[in-house]
Amino acid sequence: MAIVGGAILPYGMGTLIDMNHDDIQSGYLIPLVCFLIILYFGIFGHKVKKVA
Question: How far is it, in rounded angstroms, from Cα 25 to Cα 42?
Fold first, then answer.
């Protein structure tokens, strides 16, 4: 997560901002998606599955 978050995602954010005519707020959609994935894991992905 550290390599992707620090190296690849800023490039994606910059590209998205440039595509939307320097609308910086649109670039924050990428971290929003990342935080939603982390939230999903925190709510559903951490549960231990019972094996019968």
Answer: 26
Q: Residue-wise over 23-43: b if at least 16 C-beta within 10 A, else e?
A: eeeebeebeeeeeeeeeeeee
Query: CB neighbours (10 Å) of residue 16?
Result: 16
Amino acid at 23: D
Give the model confidence (pLDDT) of 5-47 as tens digits. Answer: 888 889 999 999 999 999 999 999 999 998 999 899 888 887 7
CA torsion through residues 41, 23, 17, 24, sign: negative
